[in-house]
Amino acid sequence: MEGTDPSLPQLSKWKLHIVSENNFPTAAGLASSAAGFAALVVAIAKLFKLPQDMSEISKIARKGSGSACRSLFGGYVAWEMGDLENGEDSKAVEVAPVSHWPTMKAAILVVSDDKKDTPSTSGMQTTVATSDLFEHRIKNVVPARFEEMKKSIHDKNFEVFGKLTMQDSNSFHAVCLDSYPPIFYLTDTSKKIIKLVHQLNDAEGKIIAAYTFDAGPNAVIYYEQQNESKVLGLIHKHFSSIPGWDKVDTSKLETVDIAADENIHKGVSKLILTSVGLGPQETSESLISKTGEPLST
């Protein structure tokens, strides 16, 4: 409007009142900041009618939260490092859409939804400054694994995908421990869940479940739809008392005879079941009242 009528106020100079809500734990290592910044940047881009090239918009989103750049797309997404020293060309690109591999699912065991002792950003800054392993990981491990992971997704090869996922999670947390002072994200419960997943895969003679832990103690367990009965059967065996099973017909889950610490469930507060999905979606709902104030506090 202001382009056709110079007398109108410039929308780009108006102040914005931003209200954001999460429906899952915040600052607990479950990418809440990625979801928030991705939604924020896309909403502002639409408000100001900016070009909707998600890779270009991702360059802005990652400045709020690195992982936010990947959240602008649906399906399977890669965060490319770029070539410039200042990182300005670092962006997210789509590896494959949801429709390519729609059977990928995830069970999230929320070990703690408390705010982390070491925030992701400051933790990474400490790691970059003090970890000898970090340099090796960035130069020798990540580039090759990056390509292998993309290929496993294109090939829909869960065994390769699962192994790479677990290896990279372990590598990341090894680097955290190598920082000075060391950064402890995993708890004893996290480690017991890791052992449980390996026991399941050993029993099956192949990888049907894969764990990963971001900068926090919460376990994300990937599996394919065809193995849901076995994977959720194992999780239900040891975590049936936690909330999150309301949408699952647990009577149809397989009985998996794998033992674990009888008190392992006490270290988990809830279960979140999800699957590969879409990027930011437009909605008619509003979190702000007609007077510009938050509808809830």
UniProtKB/TrEMBL annotation:
What this protein catalyses is: (R)-5-diphosphomevalonate + ATP = isopentenyl diphosphate + ADP + phosphate + CO2
Ranges where the Diphosphomevalonate decarboxylase-like N-terminal domain occurs: 11-92
Pathway stated in the Swiss-Prot or TrEMBL entry: Isoprenoid biosynthesis; isopentenyl diphosphate biosynthesis via mevalonate pathway; isopentenyl diphosphate from (R)-mevalonate: step 3/3
Keyword match Lipid metabolism? yes
Recorded E.C. number(s)?
4.1.1.33
Q: Which organism is it from?
A: Meyerozyma guilliermondii (strain ATCC 6260 / CBS 566 / DSM 6381 / JCM 1539 / NBRC 10279 / NRRL Y-324)
Spell out the PANTHER family in the cross-references: DIPHOSPHOMEVALONATE DECARBOXYLASE
Q: Tell whether Mitochondrion is among the UniProt keywords.
A: no
Q: Name one GO biological process term.
A: ergosterol biosynthetic process
* Positions of the Mvd1 C-terminal domain: 107-281
**What's the protein called, per UniProt?**
Diphosphomevalonate decarboxylase
- What's this protein's family per the entry? Belongs to the diphosphomevalonate decarboxylase family.
Domain of life the protein comes from: Eukaryota
Keywords carried by this UniProt record: ATP-binding, Lipid biosynthesis, Lipid metabolism, Lyase, Nucleotide-binding, Steroid biosynthesis, Steroid metabolism, Sterol biosynthesis, Sterol metabolism
Cellular component annotations (GO), alphabetically ordered:
cytosol
Record-linked InterPro entries: GHMP_kinase_C_sf, Mev_decarb, Mev_diP_decarb, MVD-like_N, Mvd1_C, Ribosomal_Su5_D2-typ_SF, Ribsml_uS5_D2-typ_fold_subgr
Q: Name one GO molecular function term.
A: ATP binding
